[in-house]
Each structure stands twice: as structure tokens, then as C-alpha cells.
Write a structure and sequence with these properties.
It contains 27 helices and seven strands. It is an alpha+beta fold. A hairpin with a 2-residue loop joins strand 4 (about 380-385) and strand 5 (about 390-395). The N and C termini lie far apart (about 80 Å). Mean pLDDT is about 95; it is low at about 1-10. The structure holds zinc ion. Zinc ion (ZN) binds near residues 452, 456, 482 and 485.
């Protein structure tokens, strides 16, 4: 296949790394990535060889093919690094991800490619094509393509260094699980199925890991403050001390990149091509968040502390390790709601069916189980069908496995494009698994997480028929990406929708309206405090990237922000920054979650509460937002769907509405 023949670029061989045996052998994976990189190089060579006047068809098409190959290689190496059973394959996948990132970094500094794209005539081009070219040229300038050769070489070396440090940081978290020991007495308060899974050994010791399914219930239910404290410290030091220096090096590298590019700070650089635009705009947004949540959080904290003192009169303050526990106790008492009481209604298999059914009805598609091969036998594969046609595919890898990443995420597998590849995406989660002896019961917060991740998945699939692969699915501004996921979360609040799948795993009884009312009330309580935690993480993410990192004291900075923004007392030995995984991907832009929450709630308010799935907002949302992928600026999508810019009203109402008048007065 010659590089001069653009058609050759579209020949599909082994769309998936694992078809080449890439999930079974490190060598096969490496070979598969090499083939993608070769196709990427061939497309770029063909792009540069074009002699005719440049237009989107003869030039942008080749650039798009080049990045499609790169995206695919990066996506699948990334997924295998998270999920492969064999450590050798995970290690190889990490190296391959670095190799792809290097190619990406080289492309982002390739001045010939930049000049070729800048020469494309956009006279009769579609708005999406114009947006694609303009956005790409902006990202080229932000990468420093217009600098001299020596500076570009320096930038490339710095980018590679930052990528390597980021991967190392993430991997230390992924593989840094710890265990703690507990006595049977310390497990008092934990649910029966948790106790059944954690039997004492011959000497009466029980071993607990820092993985989510072990950690979270301890922090929520364990009556033993000592156990909660040990778990909290183990969890927050699982990548400490290794990640402390790695983080400092990463921050210094990022700041150097920003300086070379003429930006005051990394945060200014990282927001320049986002909806937010600058670090100063982020600070303005954070001030609004602070204002919106301040009073509510004080009220919540006062209620919790007063309640805790009815149980422990000598309690001076509540520390950060006891916050989840006291929230749970308060909710049980104030709302007559025990979050354990709804778990039997959420066995994993029913939740999966319920989330899929909701999304299918909302977006008017059908999901069919597929026999397609995945990277592991534990993965379920589904085809997405619309009007009898397959329009995408997704992979559900939903339960913990030895060596697998411990987090919850959605990941692209193949970026779709109109008339070309079908979009494919995966969910990689760690929900409890059902088995013969264990129903795999989820907490209701897990169910919300499921809706969240499925929102991302639908964005990748339904946004997978854009004009260009480079605009597909998640290719919006990074600070718009959490809108579709947080929008779908809100559907969990609907009673009818919940009752369609929440049935007791033993009796088959439907979750009652009264229990749902209490669950929602209880879920709504604590939102202001939740926003404060987001504000804390967000400010940390911004501050670490918005100052000169020379002489930065991570411990002091974290502590100072905690004391300023959190009402719960600090615990010495907490090194949360060393396992704050979002610092790699989001860097300074963790504000994305809170900012997108404001947009998502405004979006959700457009749906008819009496008929969430049937009203016309679903179709309109799908068309004006999801299907666009990155074809338009996020700002434009907000205006197209809302008819205006987003406002704080729905967010403020969400913070306060549901429990108003239903709470005991503080001091009463
Ligand atoms: Zn998300």
C-alpha cells in the first residue's frame, strides 16, 4: 500500500488490539500498535505529498485518518493498561501508551502538518469542518508549533517527560493498594454480606484492602473510629511517598512548558482552549460556587455535629475520617432511612438491565448482546441498534479483577466517523459482582455512578457519526465532557424509572414510593457539603498549577486549603495529593466536574418531570448535544439546547430544595 493512495489508509485490519492476541501477549500488542503507528505515518506522508491546492477532501481527510489511527492505538493501549490480567501485557501497554503519546506530541509540533492544515481552503466548508480546522490550528499554536526548531525540540522533550511522569503517578495509585488488619469487633456496624465476605483467619484477624468495595463500607458504616482512621490513612497514602516527588516533578515540568509558550502559569495554558478560557475565569466560577454552597454547608455541618453529640457528648469536632459515618447515622435518624435498606433492591444484574433500558428509551435505540470478542471473558459486549442497523458497540467490564484498575471510568475503544468506523466504547468499573452465593448488591450511590458512566458511553456512541473522526464523541472541549454523564445521573431521581428495575432480590417486591422519597431526601441532604469537597479538590487542582512550583510545599498547601474550605478537621498523615489521580488527566482543570454540574442541572431542568423519557427534550438533547460530539464549541451546544447560556438557578435549587422544611432545626 503506497502512501500516495489515500484509500489505503482506510483499510481495516484488526480493529482491536485483542484480536491480534494483544490481550494475551505483550508482543502481539506491540505489533498491533506498530501497525497503527505505521498507518498514522503513512497518512501524514500522504498529506504532506499533496500538490494540488489544498481542500478538506484532499488534505483534512488524510489528517483525520492519521489521528484516527493514533486515537485508536492510544485508546486501546490505555484500556489494556487498565484491565489486562497479565502483568507483562499491562507493562507493555504502558510502554505502548507512551509510544503513542510520543507520536501525538511529535504531531502536535509538526510544523509542516500545521502549514498544510493552515493552507486548506475553507471557502465552501461546513461549519463542523471549519470548527475542526480552526480548533486544530489553535491547539497547534498552544503546543508551540510557531517556535524555532530548538524550542520545539525542547517542548517535545518536556511533553514526553510530563507524559511519563503522569503515567507513573497513575500507576503507583493503581498498583499501590494497601491492606489493613481489623478485629471482628471493629467491623461492628458493617452489613451482613460484607462480614460474610471478610471472615477472620485462625488468629481472629480480618484483612481489608483499600479497594473501593472494601474501603467505602468501612468509611460509611464502621462504628469503630480507630478502624475508619486506619482505613483512611491507608487509602490516602497508598501511593505515598513515591508520588510526592513525581508530582513535584510533574508540576515543574508543566510550568516550564507554560513558560516556554509565553503563559504565566500552566493553568492559563490548560484553559486557553477550554470553555473556561483562563485561570481567572476559573477563579470567578469558584467564587460563585463558594457563595452558593457556603451557608448550606454550615447548616449541614451544624446539624451533623449536634446529632453526633447526642451519641457522644464529649465529641469536640468531627474529623474528615468520620464525616461519611456521621452523615449515614444522621440520615438514618433524621429521615428514617438506612442506605443499607435499599441495597437488596439493587443487585448488579438488575441495575445493569435498568440503566440500559432507561438509556434505550431515552435515546430511542436498542441494545443487543453480542458474541464479539473482548479482552477478557468477564466482559459483556453489546451492539447498539437503531432502525435495525448497528450503529455502535460497547463493552462492560464491570467488576474487580486481579491487576485491574480500581476506578470507574468510560473509555473510547474506536472513534466512530460518518461513513467509516463504527464507534465503540467501554465502561471499566469495580462494582460488586453477583454470584451463586452473593447477590452483588449495590449501594444507591453505585447506581448513580452507573448512570454517570453510561452517560459518557452514550456520548461516545451517539456522537460517533460526526463528519470527521477528530470531532467524534468525547472530542468536545475537555470542560464540557462531564455534562452528558452528570445529566444522566439525574434520571436516578425519577420514581417511575427506578421502580421499573429496583426490585428486592429475594422477594421480587418493588422499591416503595415511601422508601424512594426517603432515599431522595437523604441523598439530597449533604449536597452543599459535597460541593464544598468539590471546591476543595478543584481549588487544589488549580492552585498547584497556578503558581511557581519551585519551593511548593504539597503538605502545607493541601492542609491550608482543607482548613479554608472544609468544616471537618484535618487528620495528620493524610497525603491525599499523592493519590489524587485526576491531577494527571485534568491537571488544573478539575473544575470541570462542578462547572459541568451547573450546566447538566440546567439541561435536566428542560425535561418534563412527569414524562422524563417520553418528552421531546430527550430527542432535542440527543440531536443538539450528544450527536454533535465536538462538531461545535461547547458554548454553542449550550445555547442550541437551552436557547441561552447556562444559569446557576437550577444548581442552587438542587442544592437546597428537596429537604427544605423537612429537616430538624439546628439547635431545636
Ligand atoms: Zn465522568
Amino acid at each position: 500500500m503506497s502512501a500516495e493512495n489515500p484509500m489505503a489508509i482506510h483499510v481495516e485490519e484488526q480493529v482491536h488490539a485483542w484480536e491480534a492476541g494483544g490481550s494475551a501477549s505483550a508482543e502481539a500488542l506491540s505489533g498491533w500498535v506498530s501497525a497503527r503507528l505505521a498507518a498514522h505515518e503513512a497518512a501524514l506522508a500522504a498529506l504532506l505529498a499533496v500538490e494540488a491546492p489544498r481542500n478538506p477532501e484532499n488534505s483534512l481527510r488524510l489528517f483525520d485518518a492519521a489521528i484516527e489511527q493514533l486515537n485508536r492505538a492510544g485508546a486501546q493501549a490505555g484500556v489494556l493498561n487498565s484491565v489486562a490480567v497479565d502483568k507483562a501485557v499491562r507493562d507493555q501497554a504502558l510502554q505502548e501508551a507512551q509510544r503513542v503519546a510520543q507520536a501525538g506530541s511529535a504531531l502536535s509540533l509538526n510544523r509542516q502538518v500545521y502549514e498544510a492544515l493552515a493552507a486548506i481552503s475553507l471557502e465552501d466548508a461546513s461549519p463542523a469542518t471549519k470548527h475542526f480546522v480552526e480548533r486544530t490550528l489553535l491547539s497547534y499554536r498552544l503546543a508551540g508549533v510557531d517556535k524555532d526548531q530548538a524550542t520545539r525540540d525542547r517542548l517535545q522533550a518536556l511533553q514526553e517527560k510530563a507524559t511519563g511522569l503522569s503515567l507513573e503517578f497513575s500507576r503507583n495509585i493503581q498498583e499501590g493498594g494497601k491492606t489493613i488488619e481489623a478485629t471482628a469487633a471493629e467491623l461492628d456496624g458493617l452489613p451482613a454480606d460484607y462480614l460474610a465476605r471478610h471472615q477472620p483467619d485462625s488468629e481472629g484477624r480480618i484483612t481489608l484492602s483499600t479497594d473501593q468495595p472494601d474501603m467505602q463500607p468501612v468509611m460509611t458504616f464502621a462504628n469503630s473510629a480507630a478502624l475508619r482512621e486506619r482505613m483512611y490513612l491507608a487509602y490516602n497514602t497508598r501511593a505515598y511517598p513515591a508520588n510526592k516527588q513525581i508530582l513535584l516533578d510533574l508540576l515543574a515540568t508543566r510550568q516550564e512548558i507554560a513558560t516556554v509558550l509565553g503563559f504565566r502559569s500552566w493553568a492559563d495554558l490548560a484553559t486557553a482552549d477550554q470553555m473556561m478560557g483562563s485561570a481567572a475565569n476559573v477563579r470567578t466560577f469558584l467564587a460563585k460556587l463558594d457563595e452558593a454552597s457556603h451557608e448550606g454547608a454550615l447548616r449541614e455541618h451544624a446539624l451533623i455535629l449536634e446529632f453526633a453529640r447526642t451519641r457522644q457528648p464529649e465529641l469536640a469536632a468531627i474529623d474528615i475520617t468520620s464525616r461519611g459515618y456521621w452523615y449515614e447515622q444522621f440520615r438514618r435518624s433524621a429521615f428514617d432511612f438506612d442506605s443499607q435498606s435499599v441495597r437488596p433492591y439493587f443487585p448488579y444484574a438488575q441495575v445493569e438491565a435498568g440503566v440500559l433500558e432507561t438509556a434505550a428509551r431515552l435515546f430511542k435505540v436498542e441494545f443487543r448482546r453480542s458474541s464479539a470478542l473482548a479482552w477478557d471473558p468477564a466482559v459483556s459486549v453489546f451492539e447498539v441498534i437503531e432502525d435495525g442497523e448497528t450503529v455502535g458497540r460497547f463493552y462492560l467490564d464491570m467488576h474487580p479483577r486481579e491487576g485491574k484498575d480500581k476506578w470507574f471510568s468510560a473509555a473510547p475503544i474506536v472513534t466512530g466517523v460518518r461513513g467509516g468506523s463504527l464507534p465503540e466504547a467501554a465502561l471499566i468499573c469495580n462494582f460488586p459482582n453477583g454470584s451463586k452465593d452473593d447477590p452483588g448488591l449495590l449501594q444507591y450511590s453505585d447506581v448513580v455512578t452507573y448512570f454517570h458512566e453510561f452517560g459518557h458511553l452514550m456520548h461516545a456512541i451517539l456522537g460517533g457519526r460526526t463528519e470527521w473522526a477528530g470531532l467524534s464523541g468525547f472530542a468536545t472541549e475537555g470542560d464540557f465532557v462531564e455534562v452528558p454523564s452528570q445529566m444522566l445521573e439525574e434520571f436516578f431521581r425519577d420514581e417511575k424509572l427506578l421502580q421499573a428495575f429496583a426490585r428486592h432480590y429475594q422477594t421480587g417486591e418493588t422499591l416503595s414510593s415511601e422508601m424512594i422519597r426517603k432515599m431522595k431526601l437523604s441523598g439530597a441532604f449533604g449536597r452543599a457539603d459535597w460541593v464544598r469537597s468539590q471546591l476543595y479538590y478543584t481549588t487544589l487542582s488549580l492552585d498547584l498549577h497556578d503558581q511557581d512550583p519551585a519551593g511548593l510545599d504539597l503538605d502545607a498547601t493541601t492542609r491550608r486549603l482543607h482548613d479554608r474550605l472544609q468544616l471537618w478537621t484535618w487528620l495528620d498523615g493524610n497525603r491525599m495529593y499523592a493519590s489524587f489521580g485526576h491531577l494527571t488527566g485534568y491537571s488544573s482543570n478539575y473544575y470541570t466536574y462542578a462547572f459541568d454540574k451547573v450546566i447538566a442541572l440546567d439541561f435536566f431542568a428542560q425535561f418534563d418531570p412527569a414524562d422524563l423519557l417520553g418528552c421531546d427534550a430527550g430527542a432535542r438533547y440527543r440531536k443538539t448535544v450528544l450527536e454533535q460530539g465536538g462538531s461545535k464549541p461547547g458554548r454553542q451546544m449550550v445555547r442550541d439546547f437551552l436557547g441561552r447560556d447556562e444559569e446557576f438557578a437550577a444548581f442552587s435549587q438542587w442544592l437546597n430544595e428537596e429537604f427544605e422544611g423537612q429537616l430538624p432545626e439546628a439547635g431545636a
